[in-house]
Amino acid sequence: MVFSKTTFASAFVSLLACATAVEVPKTDYEVIVVGGGPAGLSALSGVSRVRRTALLIDSQQYRNGVTREMHDVIGNDGTPPAAFRGLAREQISKYPTAHFSNETVESIVPIEGEYTAFTVTDGTGQNYTARKIVLGTGVRDILPPTPGLRENWGKGIFWCPWCDGYEHRDQPFGMIGDIHHMLGNVLETHTQYSDIIAFVNGSQTAEGEARAAEAYPDWKEQLAAWNTTIDNRTIASIERLQDGGDNRGENGDQQFDKFRLHFTTGEPVERNALMVNYPTEQATPLPAKMGLVIVDDKINVTAAMRTSEEGVFAVGDANSDGSTNVPHAMYTGKKAAVYVHVEMSREESKSKISKRTGLSHSELAAEADREIGDNLKREWELAQK
Ligand SMILES: *[C@@H]1O[C@H](CO)[C@@H](O)[C@H](O)[C@H]1NC(C)=O
Ligand SMILES: *[C@@H]1O[C@H](CO)[C@@H](O)[C@H](O)[C@H]1NC(C)=O
Ligand SMILES: *[C@@H]1O[C@H](CO)[C@@H](O)[C@H](O)[C@H]1NC(C)=O
Ligand SMILES: *[C@@H]1O[C@H](CO)[C@@H](O)[C@H](O)[C@H]1NC(C)=O
Ligand SMILES: *[C@@H]1O[C@H](CO)[C@@H](O)[C@H](O)[C@H]1NC(C)=O
Ligand SMILES: *[C@@H]1O[C@H](CO)[C@@H](O)[C@H](O)[C@H]1NC(C)=O
Predict the structure, then answer these.
(1) Region (Disordered) spans which residues (predicted)?
(2) How high is the pLDDT of residue 173?
């Protein structure tokens, strides 16, 4: 091996780095959480209770913002989403290390160093630094421009039968989507409805039927067994005839919405509730801008909610762990909070037990260079023999 001062310096830096750790970065906040839905709020709660300074930056755009009320969230069955978030904010606000901002986030850029740190820039151009990032940025439902769909979304027209199905139990029910989704829908909902129409909007073609048969060869028989008829006409528009928010039945736990579906041909059909099958996309360009690994339009995470970027965690609907609902959002937010906290604690511990702190990698290299000088050069050369 040919001696070079640089080789020696870099070996010496490695030695120094073992013996001495760098101080953890001094940032505006220890954690920045992006997104104030149940996932982000849970992450904020978790880190606040262990007295981590944290800023929640919340664009105030929520996937369930239009729904009348949440269900299947124990202790909060029937709570409107805004009331739920409001109570969460109020309760978290009592922790002095928790901070809130109602802005969007434009960019998140890593800061070079031994430990992770980031500069977060919001929509007003304000910069904040933080050691760890939790993204609870959510997804958006991709709805076609059919008149009446977006307008009535979340109010009698829904995608999640656990969230919204029960309030429409035993009512005339419709499903809108590709034919291959229909049996899956029925298997999720046949305990709620017995008068079911599958509005497959022109997808009952030879290819469509083949897609349906891939998952269930006897899909047709099964649909018929659950009294499900197929309407293949092209949907032109959806008209609301009645608002279930004001028509709730005797106990208040039913919602009698009523819709009239219009088609490009033939007579319209009336239904009280509609379940749809449409894809989702990331609600913000942030994960892509950050270069995170995205799989099937979800931020890829490990079981610890870690993304492909060290120090960045993703929670709630936006992440890849295959579940999108409020309990999942809360669980993943809480889980990320634990990993974020312990990861920072490990960094602090490593830094604390070192004798000398405060040197960056380049400062260490410079110091190594200085200390090596020419005295050690001889010894190095001897050691090479
Ligand atoms: C941010 O939004 C929340 C929820 O809408 C609201 O309660 C709060 O007052 C807002 N904060 C500021 C600083 O505007
Ligand atoms: C935020 O950081 C950017 C990039 O470093 C800088 O151009 C900008 O002036 C900063 N904004 C403020 C408000 O300091
Ligand atoms: C029905 O299918 C047409 C053609 O593929 C599509 O453009 C439209 O968005 C679909 N409508 C609904 C309500 O899914
Ligand atoms: C079966 O579906 C038909 C047509 O949608 C409906 O008229 C009938 O009431 C349904 N039967 C039951 C038991 O709900
Ligand atoms: C369903 O509609 C599509 C598009 O209009 C059409 O190509 C197909 O033949 C229809 N299927 C049946 C069974 O009528
Ligand atoms: C996504 O994350 C999983 C779990 O950590 C990992 O096994 C997989 O390799 C990742 N996928 C990509 C494309 O990085």
Answers:
(1) 347-366
(2) 98
